[in-house]
Amino acid sequence: MKFFVDTADIAEIRDLAATGLLDGVTTNPSLIHKSGRKFLEVIEEICGVVDGPVSAEVVALDHETMMKEAAVLRKIAPNVCIKVPLTIDGLKTCKALTDDGVMVNVTLCFSANQALLAAKAGASFISPFVGRHDDNGFDGMQLIEDIRLIYDNYAFDTEILVASVRHPIHVLDSAKIGADVMTAPPAVIKALFNHVLTDKGIAGFMSDWAKTGQSIL
Length: 217
Ligand code: G3P
Prior knowledge:
The structure is a single chain. This protein has eleven helices and eight strands. The chain has helices at about 10-15, 30-35, 40-50, 65-75, 90-100, 110-120, 130-135, 140-155, 170-175, 185-190, 195-210; strands at about 1-5, 25, 55, 80-85, 105-110, 125-130, 160, 180-185. Helix 1 packs parallel to helix 3 (about 40-50). The relative contact order is 0.13. Bound molecules: SN-glycerol-3-phosphate. SN-glycerol-3-phosphate binds next to helix 7. SN-glycerol-3-phosphate binds near residues 129 and 131.
């Protein structure tokens, strides 16, 4: 499963990229607002740090203006992935862009039928929001299972990009279901490294090593 980080914070992106575990980045208008940076500048900077897909979202609601915004965004770098909302105009834009060889991430997916439409529109990625689904009393991971089943039934190439990931169990369940990608905030990715028994084990080994009086270097 590929790991994308869901942030526009360049320091966090650099930090995670240094682990070698980062396959891409997703942003959205709220994350750009949180960064306090200029949208085009921050996307260009992220594309310089990460080779994989960097999602940059259009903010227009109509197809024609979405296409104009996408034309600006795709010029930034070859790894820019245009993010469009799951609406009729969004999917028209998705079809036009993917037919032209541009990567597209279809966002704000909350049903398996919506995911089916995105795949038929040629989406490179579909982003079902599991956390927001759970928040509203639905089963986010059931949605991922349903999309996996449908995409496998018809051998769609669209990658399932699990978004709105809130905790490590979402990551574990995504991997068990066979999602292609998950995108999570930096804190959730960093939490994946942690285990209390790892910390306890290191403390024990360090304490016994000190008693030997030896050093490796
Ligand atoms: O980038 C889209 C998605 O990951 C947002 O997550 O936590 O705002 O629901 P969240």
